[in-house]
Amino acid sequence: MKNAANAKHIRKHAGDSPMYRLTVGDHVFNVINILFFTIFTLACLFPFYYLFINTISDNDLVSRGVINFIPRGIHLSNYLSLLNVGDLSTSLIVTAARTFLGTLLMVAASALIGYLVTQKEMWGRSFWYRFILITMYFNAGTIPWFMNMRMLGLTNTFWAYIIPSIVAPYNIILVKTYIESIPAALEESAKIDGAPYLTIFRKIILPLCKPILATIAIFGAVGNWNSFTDSLILMQSEPKLYTLQHRLYIYLNQASNLAALMQSGGQVSEAALKSAMSGKVIKYTIAMVTVIPILCVYPFMQRYFEKGIMLGAVKG
């Protein structure tokens, strides 16, 4: 209580001291700083707000483009109707499955490899570490990559989403650097007690690596959730394996083609016009659905993200 009272007394009289008094320039800077970041924050949030109000507003008004700032005719039928669209629900399941399984395997592989390359007893440690890192700088290109995936039998299969992303060199660097920042005495004491490497890894290294593992988990989850290029190239004969982003891409193309046809003066049937109008609402809704999980997860993982990046980047 005495320390708290002293701290309160210091804070009370700090403003009276010349060294703590803010000048007019400081006040002006603070006001400009607050205004700038307020405007910047609103500019970042507005696209999400625009999408959201267009998904809950009257569909006819949305198709005419009159919903800009305030929602009108609020309803939730667009989100409920997505449950009845078979290809969207299937794409959602595929995307969720690849995000969960791909992230889990990537984090496990990054943690294990990152730990192994820190062990001086590992045979060819420097060679294997450099062999992994070299893939960050040299890429054969899309066509050789596709041919390689086809020869391996990974086209039109779900495992094409999982296997290529298990080993992530950048994440391995982060984990390796983080493990090297852990006091060596912890591992040495366990070795003296006779603990094998896997026991040390499971009971000592993994619990201490939670911040960096949460960080790379964010990288992996966001990458898997947002990815659609591999679906576009590798799943040409398997529409049931399309990801949610790929499905959104298809809807965007359909709506854009109909809009271009109408602008060029082409004849568009009433059914096609209604499809284009509903397609606009559907693509807004799908875009919002694809963003919501990341917006929900990231705030809870942010503290691990910041801590993991800072500690993992101290030395290379």
What does this 3D model show about the protein?
This protein has helices at residues 2-14, 24-56, 59-63, 77-82, 86-116, 125-133, 142-151, 169-180, 184-192, 197-208, 210-226, 229-234, 244-263, 270-312. By secondary structure, it is mostly helical. 23% of the residues are buried. Helix content is 72%, strand content 0%. It folds into two domains: 2-63; 78-312, MetI-like fold, CATH 1.10.3720.10.
Count of DSSP-assigned helices:
14
What's the number of extended β-strand segments?
0
Which stretches of 5+ consecutive residues score pLDDT under 50?
312-316
Q: Mind describing the biggest β-sheet?
A: none
In helices, the fraction of residues equals over 70%
In the CATH hierarchy, what is the superfamily of the largest domain? Answer: MetI-like
What top-tier CATH class of the largest domain fits best? Mainly Alpha
**Radius of gyration based on Cα positions:** 27 Å
Shape: globular
What is the mean pLDDT? 78
Can you tell me the number of structural domains? 2
- CATH-level-2 architecture of the largest domain: Orthogonal Bundle
SS-based structural class? Answer: mainly alpha
Quick structural summary:
By secondary structure, the chain is mainly alpha-helical. Helices cover 72% and strands 0% of the residues. It has two domains: 2-63; 78-312, MetI-like (MetI-like fold, Orthogonal Bundle), CATH 1.10.3720.
